[in-house]
Each structure stands twice: as C-alpha cells, then as structure tokens.
C-alpha cells in the first residue's frame, strides 16, 4: 500500500507516518522542508520516503503527483494533515482577514488541490482512502466564538469531506474527517494526550475496510456531531 501524508515531519503527521510504516505501507512522508522530511523519515525507518511538499504550492503538488505516478502508478491513502493558525488570540468580530486567508490556503485549498491532483492515482487503487484531519473546533453543533481562522477553515474542510465522499462513493473512495482530540504537539501545546493516541483515529480511517464509513466526522473511531 502506498500512502502520502502532508506535514509528516513533526507532531501528529509524523506519528501517522510511523503507524502506516508499521502496518507495512510505503509512506511518502512529505514536508515543506526536504531536510525536515528526511530527518523524520530516518528517525522512523522502514519504507518511508521523504518528499518536499508545501501544500500551498501548486508546483509542489503537481510535482508530488508526478513522482507518485512515476514510482508507483497509484496511491492508496492520502492523509491531509498539515494545518496552521490555531488563532486563540483573535475573535471573528475583529479577525485579521489576511490571517484567515492564509490559513485557508493551507487548511482548505491545500487539501483540495491535493485531492484534485492525486485523484487519478487514487482511482488506480483497489482500496482508496482520503483522511482529512479536522478538529472538534469545526463542529457547528457546539460552536461558540474564538479561533475564527482555524474554525472556519476546518468547517470548510468538513464540507469538502462531505462533498468528496458523495461524489466519489461510486468509485469506492472512502473520505472522512477525523478529529485527533487534544494532542500535545507544537500546535496543541502541553497537557494534551500523547501523539500516538491522536494518530490512532487517523490510522483507523486510513485503513478502513471496503465496507467502512464514508462522509463521516469521527474521533477515536466514534462519530462526532457536525
Ligand atoms: N494538536 C491538537 O491538539 C490538534 C487538535 C485538533 C486537530 N489537530 C489537527 O491535527 C493536524 C496536525 O496537527 P499538529 O498538532 O501535529 O500540528 P503541528 O505540530 O503544528 O504540525 C503541523 C504540521 O503541518 C505542517 N505544515 C504547516 N503548513 C504547511 C504547508 N504549507 N505545507 C506543508 N506542511 C505544512 C508543519 O510543517 P513545518 O514543520 O514546516 O511547519 C507541521 O509538519 C492538523 O490538521 C491540526 O489542525 C490538532
């Protein structure tokens, strides 16, 4: 199985790469710095290939798709993990819209572009899976104020998840949004749970059986309210 993970150099993304490698996948560990991708791939070991990929760069995404085409001819798993701007310092009423726009480039348009470019390769897979790493902060059911760039871009990512799942259902592509919970990473800060626990629900979605769910929002394999 061939998997591509964005933001694989640290945090939850690196742990997802480790978990997929342990399950016998060939993992394209992508990061916006090739140096960082290489260091993480070496630390994990196994069949983990470092690839430079900034999700906001159309050129990088096209190049990554070309590399997968050339080396493997198909892709089984895409994990859209990279994200930025947990903006606890601002509220929607006075948010800096340039900050929101920049967050959308990484958190929404990045995953969207990757799906579009990699879809022909996913369609060549017998068991294609797309995992969009989201957050409970995107749940409209309990939404209050705060973290406007992060929240709105993850809500949009959830909407994209629903649309893709519906459009790709007949092709057998399972598409789900996964919240890892509060995890102790650079983004999550101290006090969250260990990265392995956050990664587990993502690995679950990346390795679902063919009759598994699609178009869902989950944490730890259990549904979350949209
Ligand atoms: N930690 C939590 O408590 C928590 C809770 C809910 C959801 N999540 C979600 O879980 C995912 C992983 O979060 P994390 O806690 O592991 O975050 P993190 O420690 O801040 O790591 C973020 C990763 O994204 C990468 N990245 C940022 N911009 C990128 C770009 N333009 N192109 C490619 N990679 C880029 C970073 O690369 P660089 O090293 O180059 O910056 C880094 O590898 C995110 O989607 C996040 O929203 C996290």
From TrEMBL:
It comes from Actinomadura litoris. GO terms for molecular function: oxidoreductase activity. Transmembrane segments: none annotated. Keywords: NADP, Oxidoreductase. PROSITE patterns: ADH_SHORT. This is SDR family NAD(P)-dependent oxidoreductase. Belongs to the short-chain dehydrogenases/reductases (SDR) family. It holds the Pfam family adh_short. It comes from the Bacteria.
């Amino acid at each position: 199985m061939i998997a591509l993970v964005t933001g694989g150099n640290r945090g939850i993304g690196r742990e997802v790469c480790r978990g997929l490698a342990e399950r016998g996948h060939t993992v394209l560990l992508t990061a916006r710095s090739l140096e960082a991708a290489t260091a993480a791939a070496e630390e994990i070991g196994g069949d983990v290939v470092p690839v430079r990929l900034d999700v906001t760069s159309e050129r990088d995404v096209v190049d990554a798709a070309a590399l997968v085409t050339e080396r493997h001819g198909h892709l089984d798993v895409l994990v859209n993990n990279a994200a930025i701007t947990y903006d606890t310092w601002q509220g929607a009423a006075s948010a800096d819209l340039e900050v929101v726009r920049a967050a959308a480039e990484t958190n929404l348009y990045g995953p969207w572009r990757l799906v579009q470019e990699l879809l022909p390769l996913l369609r060549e897979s017998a068991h294609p899976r797309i995992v969009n790493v989201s957050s409970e902060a995107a749940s409209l059911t309990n939404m209050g104020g705060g973290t406007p760039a992060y929240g709105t871009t993850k809500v949009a990512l959830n909407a994209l998840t629903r649309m893709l799942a519906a459009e790709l259902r007949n092709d057998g592509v399972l598409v789900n949004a996964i919240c890892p919970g509060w995890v102790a990473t650079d983004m999550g800060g101290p006090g969250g749970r260990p990265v392995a626990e956050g990664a587990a629900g993502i690995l679950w979605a990346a390795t679902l059986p063919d009759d598994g769910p699609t178009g869902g929002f989950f944490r730890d394999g259990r549904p979350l309210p949209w």
